[in-house]
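Posting this for the archive.
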Amino acid sequence: MEQTETVMPKSHFKLMSAMFAVRDFFAPRSRILDEIDINEGDVILDFGCGPGGYCIAAADLVGESGRIIALDINPAALEHVQSRAEKQNIDVIETMLSNGGIDLLDTSVNVVFLFDVLHDLKNWAAIVPEIRRVLKPDGVLATHDHHMKEEDIIGAVTESGLFQYEGITKHAFRFRPI
């Protein structure tokens, strides 16, 4: 996939990580994940994982038999996630550097997280088929982006015809593959 996304400078990433750490202290990501169908043994793709708040919180939900792939365009993000996972003795998280392409087998993922990243994806039209390709037929795409209006999020995900809108919980939009 051609390079169309921009990598955040490391200094900006460090500032964002610090802000997210404060946010996650007062509003743990586990509260949001409790609204998504995540089961022990699931495979989760955290697309645009950033500092890893969601994938770290999901580790307890998937258990030792699960797997979480933290994917990001920014090597600093992946280093940060790996460091956090190691400090917390989390063995189910692996990192993947990508600019949109997903180096996973077809229908190999139960849940895709797409949190607070949709507004930044310049090549979304190329990314959505990749997400659909790796998601199992009964899988869930969970997303939210406080930078976008509800109708814009729903439109962005469903316009390809690859996903149908299932509804919104308190914190996440849910989509199922078609």
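The mean pLDDT is 90. Residues 59 and 165 are 26 Å apart (CA to CA).
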